[in-house]
Hints:
single chain
Amino acid sequence: MPRLKRDPSALNDDVYDGLAGFRMAMRRFLAFSEAALSDAGVTSQQYQALLIVRTAKNRQVRIRDLADQMLMHHNGAVQLIDRMCAAALSERIPAEDDKRTVMIILTPKGEGVLETLAKVHVEGMLINEPLLAESLSRLRQVIELA
């Protein structure tokens, strides 16, 4: 029976194992994250926006900058901020340098929700760290040996 030739440029099985492990770690973390966010009554987009505002200079951000960082259109960011303001997570204030520009800041409630969720997410990341680190290490070893 004729033998099939192996493509020399084909990826090693270990690469697929590393990719599968990495994806599994990410999916586990994302499932964990979605459950934590749901329990807190916050969407994934709202949590990301809270993080962006919290890490911005002076803890305030222009809507267009928020939209850019979240890879969304300006009108989508406006709608997201509308929902966050309605939930008392954030508020709009005029920019100090240009009163026509609107800045987004966190409310005390938004800061509290973010603090709680950040602690939960750090814990979840550390739980998934071994699988993630092992998968990345396996990929690095396979690539370096190639």
